[in-house]
Structures are given as structure tokens and as C-alpha cells.
């Protein structure tokens, strides 16, 4: 396999940095996919009724007999400093844990209100861990909208777990990022077929399977938004394997190739293991690419997945990127993707939503990827949109999902084409 990088990639292009009003979910959103992944964890948001509503509406489609997240509501008296929020928190946690012996990890999740009243959740987690050890480990992270955009909640959660991981001298591969189980199993099967192992996952599905970490650990990120986790693992002596992210056939092949190289896998083995799924991915993408080919793309900053997805959509689906926005641009992590993304689109970091809307309106892209709040008004103006949030709720990584990933972007374009056709018919 030879990959042709563009003559000039985007790694060193000037970045448009914006620091204005932003339209993006807070980090609490990550709880929706994290609680599905970590089967004996509970996420207790220490927040307001607004936070509870966000979680309920984002998770609205899932009704659990025993949910794995909840909100400890800070009432007005807490916010006014009239009650000891720590005492109430201890009481809530004791009640929860006595009712739910299945909980092995408890995350206290900070929010805007808990930050405003400066509730020290780190200290609370230490106190509660001492009280409920060894059965339950209590950790904390923030999902506050003041500090985090929506995928940063996962990063903050995983980074909080790293210092608590056991030390090891073993040479192990660590896959980092909360993938749906079925997707994680596909990745593990490919790695195992190449003879790569032992492989551990962060987060693990159960607390007892938590990985250990040390100077001989090498890790591969499966999500581009894990900057703090990358830093925390590096501090523990682990080494990152840089690679493009496993989106599409090309991204998956390059990601696997980087890991295979680290573990000395021969080209023959690599090709034998990947040939069939690669062929399936190429075919599945081709069935969507006709709709996407030549269409222009404008990405608002939401999930930090934007640069690798722009790489996939331009190189494998023939789209033309006009602007690729991302809340944060972590150059070390995204460098391999930026190398492959041909110079041309505006690369923007952060947001000043009004200015960005002006640029989108002037560009009139065929497809705009943006948050829920912007999608409806832009649709009303005749632009075709894709909700960025679907990209984190839908299985999109690795070969078997490559066609579905392309379809996520092709669907709104097909819908718009059908609408236009039926309008034309009605007018005739
Ligand atoms: S953490 Fe902040 S932004 Fe998020 S739901 Fe709560 S109040 Fe809103």
C-alpha cells in the first residue's frame, strides 16, 4: 500500500484563532457514552436542574431500570452558601452506594454551579474514596460549560483515571478512548490476528479490568480529543504512537500500520489481516462517495473530530473543504491527519460564532457540519446541515464502519436533493 500525501498539507498552515461566543454543548454530554461503556461506574453530576435536564434530554431515548448517572442538585441554599454542600454530598453518596452495591467506580462530575461556588470535588472524592474503599473508588472531573466543550468531558474523565492506574513494567499496548464495545472488539480482533498483545483498553468495561501503566506501555489514541489524557499517560512514562485517526479505510490502515510497526509485524502479515476488511471498507465508501464527490464542506468547531473527518471526506469521498473548525487544535495529536489534509481550507481554532456564521453564509457550502443550535436556522436559510453530535453517538471508527461514516454525511445531501426535486415537481 502506498499512501500519497498532498504536496502541501495543513500541519504548518496559519490557523485562524477565534475567542468569542461559542455554540457548543458542555462536557457533561460525554457521560451519555461513558456510562454505557463503563458498566460498573456511576456518574454523579454535582450541578443544577439545568444540568439534570441536559442529561435527561440528551439521554432521553434510553430508559434504564437502574441508571448509571444522576444529578445531585445544588439548591439555592447551597449556592448561597447557607448549607454545607459537602455534608449533603456525603449523605447522597452514602445513600446511593448502599442502594447500589454494583457500583465500583463513582465519578463526581463538576458543573458550572459547583465551580461557581468553588466546591472542591477533588477533596470530596479523596474523602469519599477513603470512606468507601476498597469496594468503590471515587474520582472527580469537570464537565462544566465554563471549562469544557462536549468531547472534553471524556478527556477529563480518562485523565482523572490515569493517576489511579496501577504501575507496571510490562510492554503492553493501551487503546485509549471510549469506543462502542462492538467497534472495540473489531479493533482487538485485527490486532490479535497480527499477533499484537497484550492489549488493554482505557476505559475498561469493568473496574477490575483497569489497565496498568508504566515506562514500557505504548498507547494509541482512538479519539483526537484526548489531549489531557495523552499528557497524563506521558507523565506516567507511557509513549504515544502517533498516527492518523482510524476513520475511513485510509485512516484505519495508517493507524493499524503505525501500531503494527511498533510491534514489528511483517508487511505480509499486515496485508493478509487487513486485505479483506479494507476491500469491504473501500466498497462501502464508494457506494456513498458519488453523493459527496465535489461537494463543498464547512465544519463548525464541536467535537475536535473535525480535522481527521475533513481528511477522510476530502481524500476518500472527494469533498472540498472550505473551513475546518475545531474547538482546540492539538498539533502533536493531529499532526499526521493535518499532513494528509491538502492545503486550502481555512483551519480555525476556537469560535466567534457570529463571524463564523458570516463566513458560512458567504461560502454557501453544500454541507455544513455544526451543533444542534445552529443547524435549524441554517437549514431555514437553505443550507444543508449535519449534526456534529451524531458523530460521537454513532459507531464510526475502523473498517466496518467506514461506509456508515460516509453515509452520515451523504444522507443530508440526498434528503436535500429529494426536497428540491419535489419542490420542482410541485411548481410544474
Ligand atoms: S454544566 Fe453548565 S453548561 Fe453544562 S448543563 Fe450544567 S449549567 Fe449548563
> What is the spatial order of strands in the main beta sheet?
1-12-11-10-13-14
Structural class: alpha/beta
Radius of gyration: 22 Å
Number of strands: 14
Helicity, in percent? 40-55%
Average residue-wise pLDDT = 92
CATH topology assignment of the largest domain: Rossmann fold
For the record, the count of structural domains works out to 3
Strand content: 15-25%
EC number: 1.3.7.7
InterPro entries: LIPOR_BchN/ChlN, Nase/OxRdtase_comp1, Protochl_reductN
Binding site for [4Fe-4S] cluster: 26, 51, 112
Catalytic activity: chlorophyllide a + oxidized 2[4Fe-4S]-[ferredoxin] + 2 ADP + 2 phosphate = protochlorophyllide a + reduced 2[4Fe-4S]-[ferredoxin] + 2 ATP + 2 H2O
Amino acid at each position: 500500500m502506498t499512501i500519497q500525501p498532498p504536496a502541501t498539507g495543513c500541519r504548518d498552515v496559519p490557523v485562524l484563532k477565534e475567542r468569542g461566543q461559542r455554540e457548543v454543548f458542555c462536557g457533561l454530554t460525554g457521560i451519555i457514552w461513558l456510562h454505557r461503556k463503563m458498566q460498573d461506574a456511576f456518574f454523579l453530576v454535582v450541578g443544577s436542574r439545568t444540568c439534570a435536564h441536559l442529561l435527561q434530554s440528551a439521554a432521553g431515548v434510553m430508559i434504564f431500570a437502574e441508571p448509571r448517572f444522576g444529578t445531585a442538585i445544588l439548591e439555592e441554599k447551597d449556592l448561597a452558601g447557607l448549607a454545607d454542600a459537602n455534608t449533603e454530598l456525603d449523605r447522597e453518596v452514602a445513600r446511593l452506594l448502599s442502594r447500589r452495591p454494583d457500583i465500583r467506580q463513582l465519578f463526581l462530575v463538576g458543573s458550572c454551579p459547583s465551580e461557581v461556588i468553588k466546591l472542591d470535588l477533588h477533596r470530596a472524592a479523596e474523602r469519599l474514596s477513603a470512606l468507601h474503599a476498597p469496594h468503590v473508588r471515587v474520582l472527580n472531573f469537570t464537565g462544566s460549560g465554563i471549562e469544557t466543550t462536549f468531547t472534553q468531558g471524556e478527556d477529563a474523565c480518562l485523565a482523572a483515571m490515569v493517576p489511579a492506574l496501577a504501575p507496571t513494567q510490562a510492554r503492553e499496548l493501551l487503546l485509549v478512548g471510549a469506543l462502542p464495545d462492538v467497534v472495540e472488539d473489531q479493533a482487538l480482533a485485527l490486532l490479535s490476528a497480527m499477533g499484537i498483545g497484550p492489549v488493554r483498553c482505557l476505559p475498561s468495561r469493568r473496574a477490575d479490568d483497569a489497565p496498568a501503566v508504566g515506562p514500557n506501555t505504548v498507547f494509541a489514541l482512538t479519539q483526537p480529543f484526548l489531549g489531557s489524557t495523552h499528557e497524563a499517560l506521558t507523565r506516567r512514562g507511557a509513549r504515544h504512537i502517533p498516527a492518523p485517526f482510524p476513520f475511513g479505510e485510509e485512516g484505519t490502515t495508517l493507524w493499524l500500520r503505525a501500531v503494527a510497526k511498533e510491534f514489528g509485524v511483517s508487511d505480509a502479515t499486515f496485508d493478509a489481516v487487513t486485505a479483506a476488511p479494507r476491500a469491504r471498507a473501500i466498497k462501502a465508501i464508494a457506494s456513498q462517495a458519488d453523493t459527496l464527490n465535489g461537494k463543498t464542506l464547512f465544519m463548525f468547531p464541536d467535537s475536535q473530530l473535525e480535522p481527521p473527518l475533513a481528511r477522510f471526506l476530502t481524500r476518500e469521498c472527494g469533498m472540498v473543504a472550505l473551513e475546518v473548525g475545531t474547538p482546540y487544535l492539538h498539533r502533536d495529536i493531529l499532526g499526521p491527519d493535518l499532513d494528509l489534509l491538502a492545503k486550502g481550507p481555512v483551519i480555525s481554532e476556537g469560535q466567534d460564532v457570529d463571524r463564523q456564521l458570516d463566513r458560512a453564509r458567504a461560502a454557501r457550502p453544500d454541507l455544513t457540519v455544526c451543533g444542534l443550535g445552529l443547524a435549524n436556522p441554517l437549514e431555514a436559510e437553505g443550507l444543508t446541515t449535519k449534526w456534529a453530535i451524531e458523530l460521537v453517538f454513532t459507531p464510526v471508527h475502523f473498517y466496518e464502519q467506514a461506509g456508515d461514516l460516509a453515509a452520515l454525511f451523504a444522507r443530508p445531501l440526498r434528503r436535500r436533493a429529494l426536497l428540491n426535486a419535489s419542490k420542482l415537481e410541485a411548481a410544474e
